[in-house]
């Protein structure tokens, strides 16, 4: 496991995955509304990237995924990028000692990570002059986010592992060479 | 070796955090906000047609699973009817306002009535894209004459205000959003004023700054006043009093307002081309 094996080809695939998840989120997920809230797939990107390739990749993917979502969300520009970056790094650092093949790792990381990210997002928004962000129904939000994170973490994780695949990964599709490394 | 890798990781994340904080500062700063809104505008102009394409592709599948062969056309017809009902309700409510204000309005010849203002009819393409804000995205933007600050009405009354305008789309903050504040008048001869304050998605707004003892009744209409910094033209129905009580020792009545507009049926809305203080 190491972030230094991400190549340009992997980066292009990560961009594709971010775009795909953004499209799914904005067209399908926003329609799946229960109690006024809908699933949020954004946080699964840094979580799965961190689980697949460590805290640095988690942070970088979280930053770029957040930035892409910031472009289409009405919340302050840069906030999703900040939370995504911190989330990816934290998940990578906290799960570094856990065997990645452990079956409970992905659902537990997705559930706790997504809920923590939403809490941080709301609190950060309130601190930055958006008090309405803490006026929502957090019970409904956490319920929806918990369920959806556990359900969708597996497909997103598969996509992310494909995107980040290098020669040292079991599911490698493209060999990575030292001189092609991006980070 | 391991330590240098760890410190490099930390440095990368610190740099990204600093970049994120800088972007947030640029966005929240009034002088540099145009920079980030410009980037958003370009991104939305590219992204909107793509999303519309994907939406058009998957919508029939969703309609199919809804179980009705004519679901799409029925839904469209229903949305059009809802809009017509809303317009009729708005007209009816406006008449009440006009009667109350008649003797004052005759002296204010240039007061902008909604009926005389130009509007742009727009379709809602997205609702509440974030769980943290109450907003809708419309399929009309700067190219169609929609600018930031324009009021948006539909389905019975005031819906909200345009907060971002891109080339072919715009974002509207609903009156239920926590950041929404609307100056209203109510009561006999519309002599009482209040601020209708959004309480976040899914919650009814409240009416603030109403002194104890002010005559109130359930179902009482509230209209935009045009007084508080003239953010909206006067006379647009905002909501009706749903409940009220005065907590002991409170300096104001606690009022819950039910929006006049049917905010769950916002397929079509009108953007009012009204510029404050003109």
Q: What would you say this structure looks like, in words?
A:
The complex is a heterodimer of chains A (183) and B (278). The longest helix of chain A has 27 residues, at 44-70. Chain A has helices spanning 8-27, 44-70, 79-94, 105-127, 138-164. With 183 residues, chain A is an all-alpha fold. With 278 residues, chain B is α+β, with helices and mostly antiparallel strands. In chain B, the strands form two sheets. Chain B has a six-stranded antiparallel barrel. In chain B, helix 1 crosses helix 2. Chain B is globular. The termini of chain B are far apart. The chains are: A mainly alpha (183), B alpha+beta (278). The interface between A and B is large, with 53 and 51 residues.
Summarize the structure.
The complex is a heterodimer of chains A (183) and B (278). With 183 residues, chain A is mostly helical.
Over all CA atoms, what is the radius of gyration of chain A? 16 Å
Globally, the shape of chain A reads globular
Q: State the major sheet of chain B.
A: 6 strands, antiparallel, barrel
Greatest interface: A-B, 53 and 51 residues
The count of β-strands of chain B is 12
Count of individual helical segments of chain B: 3
Q: Kindly report the average pLDDT value of chain B.
A: 82
Order of helices and strands of chain B: HHHEEEEEEEEEEEE
In this structure, how is the largest beta sheet of chain A organized?
none
- N→C terminal distance of chain B: 67 Å
As a percent range, the share of helical residues of chain A equals 55-70%
The whole-angstrom Rg of chain B is: 22 Å
- Quote the distance from N terminus to C terminus of chain A: 13 Å
Mean pLDDT of chain A: 86
What share of the residues of chain A does DSSP label as strand, in percent? Answer: under 5%
User: Any low-confidence stretches of chain A, pLDDT <50, length ≥5?
Assistant: 167-179
